[in-house]
Amino acid sequence: MNTENEFINKKKVTPNNLLRALYDREINGNKTRMHFVKTTYQILNPNCTVINVEKPPCFLRKFTPDGRHFIAFSQDQLYIEVYAYLGCSMAAKLLKNYEGNCIGQNNDGDVVRKRIFESLFQLKFRILVAAEGEQLNRECSLFSDDSSYAILGSVGPIAHNVVLDYDDIFTNNESVSPNLLLPLENYTIHLINIKKGAVSHRLHFKADKISLSHNQGVYLLKDVLAILSVQHQIIHVYNLTQNRFCLLRKIGRFCFENDFAFISSVHTDMIAEDYKAHNEIFINGLKNKLMVFLYKKAEHESKQNGSPYPLRRFYQFYDQFMSLRMWKMQLLDVDNILIRYASEDVVTAKIQEPSTQASFFMIYNMTMATVNLFRQLKI
């Protein structure tokens, strides 16, 4: 019994109060696991809800990572509005005369509903972003880690008086065939300086197809931005530095910056003015890396098992691998990128239910230009 009492007396009991919870969250930065966060929320929770809040005529989007600013799109989707978040304490005066936990449900609290947004948010900048003939995509917005920059995308139709050449549509032998479900459009990627309220840089992609919605075709990791051109099957990789985008590499037809100079030294006709890249009979750089990886893997398995079956399987599905096209991508780190391949019918939206089709995932090292993994998965 004495031993049991001693154990109870020695057992440390953590006080469950608001002051202690906030102290652990702010001071003990290493204790940010999920159960610590939940403990704070169990003590500090919202006690009032305001519904039917009147807001400016715009599309509210998201906070910056540091929570200091709020981004909204204008109704015509040409401008962005940058609001400074003033903190929930700024609405205390509006709510001091209300005791209910829900304001605006029974047409009460008109003053609160009309003024609470302007109490919490202050408009700092209204920036014209979209280029002529384009509109911003509300589902495309990325932020730098320091919350100083926002990356937005706009899209617009190709003018009727513009006649595209065949070479503009098919820039290499991996380019896909556009159709009514996947029309070619003009795209612009904008770099916005949030603190200065100005557009710092723009990237233009003419007669292309980039999936802007939900950031499927653009990905930002630290200061590296990757943009996937579905039409031309090229991944453009940029470095965000000094208020602008600096091109690091283009992955697709070539993998290294000096590939063109090296290959043209052998195929001298490549430097001719009438040379057509879409007529090339050799495999483009990225697809060649994939096929070499699959062949070496099959060759290794054949030697290991003492059977030619893996190599026979490789040749059996050779045409299927060659017909694959890049559909989506995501940066894993500043060196490795995850690429999702699918058939051209899936990539060009000819198949309405792409989830029923097989997808292939490849991990590609951009720095070393090597394929580290290639697997077939069904999502």
TrEMBL record:
<dbReference type="Pfam" id="PF09737">
    <property type="entry name" value="Det1"/>
</dbReference>
<dbReference type="GO" id="GO:0031461">
    <property type="term" value="C:cullin-RING ubiquitin ligase complex"/>
</dbReference>
<dbReference type="GO" id="GO:0031625">
    <property type="term" value="F:ubiquitin protein ligase binding"/>
</dbReference>
<protein>
    <submittedName>
        <fullName>Uncharacterized protein</fullName>
    </submittedName>
</protein>
<dbReference type="GO" id="GO:0032436">
    <property type="term" value="P:positive regulation of proteasomal ubiquitin-dependent protein catabolic process"/>
</dbReference>
<dbReference type="GO" id="GO:0005634">
    <property type="term" value="C:nucleus"/>
</dbReference>
<dbReference type="InterPro" id="IPR019138">
    <property type="entry name" value="De-etiolated_protein_1_Det1"/>
</dbReference>
<dbReference type="GO" id="GO:0016567">
    <property type="term" value="P:protein ubiquitination"/>
</dbReference>
<dbReference type="GO" id="GO:1990756">
    <property type="term" value="F:ubiquitin-like ligase-substrate adaptor activity"/>
</dbReference>
